[in-house]
């Protein structure tokens, strides 16, 4: 005969069910709870045994709650949220930022901008541990267990909160050697005779759009080139090899511009629409912002240079 479990022994199990409902998978729930997938499964089984009814529907492709499971989560989710917020508030008062911060960022942006800043943040807040995942996949923060995403985007969903870190811009670059050999474009239409290295997208033929600095002229130019890639670092290296003219976000081009390995092309024109013009820190909406999250966002704002200087190598210990 199954021994009746005391309700107080099941608090963590009920919380686990709520996290499973929120994330939609055992793997994501385990990641958020920082336990093994097997432990999540075991807790759910024990909770179902204690409840006497199935709480989770399991298939080979998905996980969903039964009516009983959804009802249990609905009745308890707000209580667990209040417990978490109350404990975090008390801990923040006494200890400052601490715990695990899970962050995701695009590969190129993460490697060039975010990763160099992390040592300085961790030295300042030694009780924090950061898990950084670099991926160009636009992760669902809630379902995949991330606390924060650093994104180079034009906008974010209404269900999330976006904090502007800085403005960015797109620039055309080439080596002095390439321009000496093939000529320097004076207007956007001159690009038709150049090898243009562009970001690989699924929308078909590449077109670069420009606006004059005085904003009195606009032009869209179809471009062709011998090389495309879906990573700005790769395009920068191709341009640095004098292969052609590349269109890059400023954070990718900056160090090479500083060293003189690359020079900016068509400085009298602003590139429009190719890359986003703002860098955001994005988090799921919560009534209270965890101190670790707000501290990291504040640190990034202070450490990453503003628009014209974003491409410069940021100082990790900037404050």
From TrEMBL:
InterPro entries: LysR-type_TF_proteobact-type, LysR_HTH_N, LysR_subst-bd, WH-like_DNA-bd_sf, WH_DNA-bd_sf. Keywords: DNA-binding, Transcription, Transcription regulation. Residues 9-66 form the HTH lysR-type domain. Belongs to the LysR transcriptional regulatory family. This is LysR family transcriptional regulator. It comes from Achromobacter denitrificans.
């Amino acid at each position: 005969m199954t021994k009746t479990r005391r309700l107080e022994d099941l608090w963590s199990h009920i919380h686990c069910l709520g996290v499973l409902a929120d994330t939609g998978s055992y793997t994501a729930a385990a990641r958020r709870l920082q336990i093994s997938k097997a432990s999540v499964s075991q807790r759910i089984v024990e909770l179902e045994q204690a409840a006497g009814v199935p709480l989770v529907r399991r298939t080979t492709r998905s996980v969903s709650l039964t009516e009983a499971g959804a009802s249990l989560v609905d009745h308890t989710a707000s209580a667990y949220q209040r417990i978490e917020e109350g404990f975090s508030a008390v801990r923040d008062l006494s200890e400052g930022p601490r715990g695990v911060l899970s962050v995701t960022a695009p590969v190129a942006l993460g490697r060039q901008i975010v990763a160099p800043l992390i040592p300085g943040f961790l030295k300042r807040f030694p009780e924090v541990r950061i898990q950084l995942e670099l991926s160009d996949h636009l992760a669902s923060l809630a379902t995949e267990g991330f606390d924060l995403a650093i994104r180079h985007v034009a906008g974010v969903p209404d269900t999330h909160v976006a904090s502007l870190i800085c403005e960015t811009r797109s620039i055309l670059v080439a080596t002095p050697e390439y321009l000496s050999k093939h000529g320097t474009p004076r207007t956007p239409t001159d690009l038709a005779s150049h090898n243009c290295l562009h970001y690989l997208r699924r929308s078909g033929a590449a077109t670069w759009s420009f606006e004059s600095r005085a904003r009195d002229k606009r032009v869209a130019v179809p471009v062709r080139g011998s090389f495309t890639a879906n990573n700005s670092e790769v395009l920068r290296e191709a341009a640095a090899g004098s292969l052609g003219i590349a269109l890059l976000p400023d954070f990718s081009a900056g160090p090479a511009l500083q060293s003189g390995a690359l020079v900016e092309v068509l400085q009298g024109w602003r590139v429009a629409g190719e890359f986003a013009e703002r860098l955001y820190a994005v988090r799921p909406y919560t009534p209270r912002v965890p101190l670790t999250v707000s501290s990291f966002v504040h640190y990034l704002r202070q450490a990453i240079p503003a628009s014209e200087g974003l491409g410069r190598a940021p100082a990790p210990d900037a404050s």
